[in-house]
Amino acid sequence: MHPTTSPLLLTANALPTPVGQAVLQLARSLRTMSRSGALPPLLDGKHLGLLSADRHNASQGVVAHAARGLGARVAWVPPLAVAPDNVAQIRDTARLLGRCYDALDCDGLPAELVQCLHRDSGVPVYDGLGRHDHPVAQLLPHLDGEQTQATGAPAGGDDGHHLLLQAMLVHTLL
């Protein structure tokens, strides 16, 4: 995880920051909406680009599922045919990707490339958003920590992770 590509969600003591609290509240709201019927297409018209060497990357698969569940369009972008030492070409590619997509999720790419995409694309760039070691996933224990659900069991596991991914996408794209 590169600190330049994600807002700080947890403190050093593993407590949610104000941004982390906002993502948690969004996840709770999404859960309530989901339980009362279908989620509205909050990300309708948004485009998410997934960049990884492996088209069938499992962590990006969960991100794609979460984004599509909110109406976003998702596309896999083949690995950049850009040498990390060719800064001008990387910057041009980053600007082009920023025109095509509203956000990018990178997984398994060199840190320098992810940082360049973040700096030059002009859109949110996540670094492995769907991985279980991403800070968004680290919010899972806090999802129901302050609130007991009267109508059903607390969200946990994959359901909670899915809600947190959707909340992060909504938080950064709207």
Your description of this structure?
This protein is α/β, with parallel strands linked by helices. The chain has one domain (10-173): Aspartate/ornithine carbamoyltransferase (Rossmann fold, 3-Layer(aba) Sandwich), CATH 3.40.50. Helices cover 41% and strands 11% of the residues. It has five helices and four strands, in the order αβαβαβαβα. It has helices at 18-35, 58-68, 87-100, 111-121, 157-173; strands at 47-52, 73-77, 103-107, 125-127. It has a four-stranded parallel sheet with strand order 2-1-3-4, with helices on both faces. α4 links the parallel β3 (103-107) and β4 (125-127). α3 packs across α4 (111-121). The protein starts with 17 loop residues before the first helix and ends with a helix. The model is unreliable at 146-156 (pLDDT under 50).
Tell me the number of helical segments per DSSP (H or I, 4 or more residues long).
Answer: 5
Alpha-beta content class: alpha/beta
Unreliable runs, pLDDT <50, ≥5 residues? 146-156
Dominant shape: globular
CATH-derived architecture: 3-Layer(aba) Sandwich
Number of domains: 1
In CATH terms, what is the fold-level topology?
Rossmann fold
- Estimate the helix proportion, in percent: 40-55%
The CATH superfamily title: Aspartate/ornithine carbamoyltransferase
- The oligomerization state is single chain
- Average pLDDT confidence is 85
N- and C-termini, Cα separation: 23 Å
Strand arrangement, major sheet: 2-1-3-4
SSE topology string: HEHEHEHEH
Beta-strand percentage range: 5-15%
- Please outline the major beta sheet: 4 strands, parallel
CATH classification class? Alpha Beta
